[in-house]
Amino acid sequence: MMAALMALNALAIDIMLPGLPQIGASLGVADENQHQFIVTSYVLGFGIAQLAYGPLSDRFGRKFPLIAGLAIYFVGALFCAIVPSFTMLLLVRFFQGLGAAATRVISVAVVRDLYGGRKMAEIMSLIMMVFMVIPIIAPTIGQTIMFAGEWHLIFFFLAGAGLINIFWVSFRLPETQHPEDVRPLTPKAIASSFYTVLSNRIAFFYTLATMFIMGCIFGFVTSAPQVFLSVFELGTLFPLAFAGIGVTMAFSSLMNSRIVGKLGMRKLSHGALIGFTTTTGLWLLIDLAFGGLMPFWLFYVMFLVAWFQFGWIAPNFNSLAMEPLGHVAGAASSLLGFATTAGSALLGSVIGLSFNGTTTPMITGFFCFAVLALGLTVIAEKGKLMQPHNPEV
């Protein structure tokens, strides 16, 4: 169920990638770079609202705020299908993102309610595996819907998916918050919860590191249509190329879930981050040697190598940031979610808006964000990487 909830958010982003040009043309948008705002506006709403859902779920439990968020998502999807202008579409997508934020915050809080340490990393890896499958199938679903009709049907499909999740959560999700962890919804209590999160060195710096790592994902998503369609001219093969990267990350997350219990989160994620940084640095050098237009096969091989390592970073970093904060899981999930969505979306938009007809801006962004994430991880661990703190982490 938690995987499905988080996948609902990924679906709202990736299903419309093949339709961005048609949506822009239908609503009179000439600049193709502005098509990215359909994704960015949703992600900004998704990120900002997470600051509210954490305290709400710490006060009222996980179930009620989650159902309320899903209802907002459902209504937002319906209105997206009937908006008359591009500006209105962006506003309603932002509103839809406000509702979707509940799926991210409360899903992670539910997992933290039930699990800790390496077990949480194992569960998060399985959730991430399902989450990564969505980019594999979502563009194909979007393309199929557009073959059957036009882009408006995409949003009706999202509304249907949201409605299904509303019923599933309503009838099948028990309340997972521990009674002793209920916190009052007062400014002082909220400030205290957020201070607890921000004053924890490990949680704070892992949150920032995760933000830069996830910035790579958002940079890829916003740039993918232009890179695959404009630079490499893949046409209808775009969903297949996109899916290959999703398959790689899903397989990597599955492997992580199988071995993290033996090796620990730090050994796996730190080693993968060093590898990711090295791979993207080499990739950038190759890209510059080709003037930003390397052969597609070489570009794609480097992409797969880098993104396989990504699958060992994201779920473990999420778990490492949440591990010390089980007693304020809602607030911790809020801040982690805000940084890794709103913050990452802004970072990703820098990559997307830097598109210049080559692959250089995207690869440069990957490398720079990886270097920054590595530096933040070193600070979090006081310079001692790949050292388990206890048998559970």
TrEMBL record:
<dbReference type="InterPro" id="IPR011701">
    <property type="entry name" value="MFS"/>
</dbReference>
<feature type="transmembrane region" description="Helical">
    <location>
        <begin position="361"/>
        <end position="380"/>
    </location>
</feature>
<keyword id="KW-0813">Transport</keyword>
<feature type="transmembrane region" description="Helical">
    <location>
        <begin position="335"/>
        <end position="355"/>
    </location>
</feature>
<keyword id="KW-0472">Membrane</keyword>
<keyword id="KW-0812">Transmembrane</keyword>
<feature type="transmembrane region" description="Helical">
    <location>
        <begin position="123"/>
        <end position="145"/>
    </location>
</feature>
<dbReference type="InterPro" id="IPR004812">
    <property type="entry name" value="Efflux_drug-R_Bcr/CmlA"/>
</dbReference>
<feature type="transmembrane region" description="Helical">
    <location>
        <begin position="90"/>
        <end position="111"/>
    </location>
</feature>
<feature type="transmembrane region" description="Helical">
    <location>
        <begin position="272"/>
        <end position="290"/>
    </location>
</feature>
<comment type="similarity">
    <text>Belongs to the major facilitator superfamily. Bcr/CmlA family.</text>
</comment>
<keyword id="KW-0997">Cell inner membrane</keyword>
<feature type="transmembrane region" description="Helical">
    <location>
        <begin position="66"/>
        <end position="84"/>
    </location>
</feature>
<dbReference type="GO" id="GO:1990961">
    <property type="term" value="P:xenobiotic detoxification by transmembrane export across the plasma membrane"/>
</dbReference>
<dbReference type="GO" id="GO:0005886">
    <property type="term" value="C:plasma membrane"/>
</dbReference>
<feature type="transmembrane region" description="Helical">
    <location>
        <begin position="296"/>
        <end position="314"/>
    </location>
</feature>
<protein>
    <recommendedName>
        <fullName>Bcr/CflA family efflux transporter</fullName>
    </recommendedName>
</protein>
<dbReference type="GO" id="GO:0042910">
    <property type="term" value="F:xenobiotic transmembrane transporter activity"/>
</dbReference>
<dbReference type="InterPro" id="IPR036259">
    <property type="entry name" value="MFS_trans_sf"/>
</dbReference>
<keyword id="KW-1003">Cell membrane</keyword>
<dbReference type="InterPro" id="IPR020846">
    <property type="entry name" value="MFS_dom"/>
</dbReference>
<feature type="transmembrane region" description="Helical">
    <location>
        <begin position="151"/>
        <end position="171"/>
    </location>
</feature>
<feature type="transmembrane region" description="Helical">
    <location>
        <begin position="202"/>
        <end position="221"/>
    </location>
</feature>
<feature type="domain" description="Major facilitator superfamily (MFS) profile">
    <location>
        <begin position="1"/>
        <end position="383"/>
    </location>
</feature>
<keyword id="KW-1133">Transmembrane helix</keyword>
<feature type="transmembrane region" description="Helical">
    <location>
        <begin position="36"/>
        <end position="54"/>
    </location>
</feature>
<feature type="transmembrane region" description="Helical">
    <location>
        <begin position="227"/>
        <end position="251"/>
    </location>
</feature>
<dbReference type="Pfam" id="PF07690">
    <property type="entry name" value="MFS_1"/>
</dbReference>
